[in-house]
Amino acid sequence: MNFARLADLAAAQFSQNGSIAYDQFEQIALEPSFAAVWSKSVLKPQSLTPAEYRMLDSYLAIRTTIWERAYDIEQAGYTPKGETESSMRRYGGIYFGNSFAKAWWAEERLRCGTGDFCGLLDRVLVDVGSDENDKWIKNIQDALAAESSKALEK
């Protein structure tokens, strides 16, 4: 087997591992207890308990680690340059678009070091507002209300 074929196989394995990690990560959000904690972190972050902080800490740490591993794989040349940043920009608001997550990163950043990944996440999160999750919820509620109004008019 030649080197190019081995590199292709390694890239496919990295991609599959990333998909598995993402699926496992998203399973956390499906748990009713976590969904309630996430909602509270968006709507009433001041009322979070220390146990809820810990749940959110794990969730955000896992998300950050998934991105960091993807970045490492990209830097090793197994995935296209810029793919990780593109993903981070596309989904950063989903995971970090609330005041709790922004405060979490500010604290976590102190332990992140000076590596390229930490700087990349800093640059991505500068563009993420603390109200993006609120806007997301409101946009969906508005769309549902509009659909309901249309149904009532019929």
User: What number is the mean pLDDT?
Assistant: 84
| Tally of individual domains | 1
Q: Give the CA-based shape.
A: globular
Q: What is the CA-CA span between the terminal residues?
A: 65 Å
**Strand residue content:** under 5%
How many extended strands?
0
How many distinct helices? 7
Query: What string, H for helix and E for strand, traces the elements in order?
Result: HHHHHHH
* Structural class estimated from helices and strands: mainly alpha
Biggest sheet features: none
Q: Indicate the radius of gyration in whole angstroms.
A: 19 Å
- Uncertain stretches: none
The amount of helix comes to over 70%
Describe the structure.
With 154 residues, this protein is mostly helical. It has one domain. It is 82% helix and 0% strand. The chain has helices at 3-30, 32-43, 50-75, 83-96, 99-112, 116-126, 132-153. Helix 1 runs antiparallel to helix 3 and helix 4 (83-96) packs across helix 6 (116-126). The chain is globular and about 65 Å long. The termini are far apart.
Search tags:
154 residues; globular; single chain; mainly alpha
Describe the structure concisely for a colleague.
Helices cover 82% and strands 0% of the residues.
Fold blueprint:
Elements: H1 3-30, H2 32-43, H3 50-75, H4 83-96, H5 99-112, H6 116-126, H7 132-153
